[in-house]
Automatic annotation (TrEMBL):
The lineage of its organism: Bacteria, Pseudomonadati, Pseudomonadota, Gammaproteobacteria, Thiotrichales. Coiled coil: none annotated. This is FHA domain-containing protein. Residues 23-72 form the FHA domain. Gene3D superfamilies: 2.60.200.20.
Amino acid sequence: MSQLIVMLDKQILKRIAIKTTSITLGRHGKCDITLPDRTISTHHARITILRDDCFLEDTHSTNGTYVNRLLVDRHLLEDGDIISLGKYHIVFRSEQGLGVQLKRLSLHPKLMDSGYDAWLQVMNGSKTGYIIPLKDERVVLGNQTTGQILIERSLQGQYIKRENGTMNNHRNQSLSPGNTFTVEGVNFQFCLKEQNANSTPLAPN
């Protein structure tokens, strides 16, 4: 079950299990999570749960909603994301595994858009041959309990693989076409459109 960990000055104030389809955050006492801070709007943000996914949405707040230090309007929450509202930090924790993420992220190669510059190819398992387009600035695979991989695009257009493990290790690698890595026993290969040798997706069995 997913949960929210509300923190202030690095101290945990409460842990809230996500059991409903909507959670409101703000300064008002009737919000599901009340955050008494003048910089936080009366009704600041909302988390909406759709099947296995949790979406954070800023509800026209005055000072904005931040996730991992980036200003967001709407954001799909991933395990380990840190929501910042005023002086409060709220950590999102989820046990959602790679299987659920693959259902959401992966596409059959026949559905591949010619506009995709880079993607991951699934090399084994039930989704062999499927692709994960790297169209967003950040793609998260796995969770922090089992081992988590983040693929991020730098301002220079490079794709960086960052590892988050249970020991809080952080290892960064600039990806090149043909590079492979493993998450929860599933192998992935990084592909770039410009590299013909690595840009033709394998047909699923």
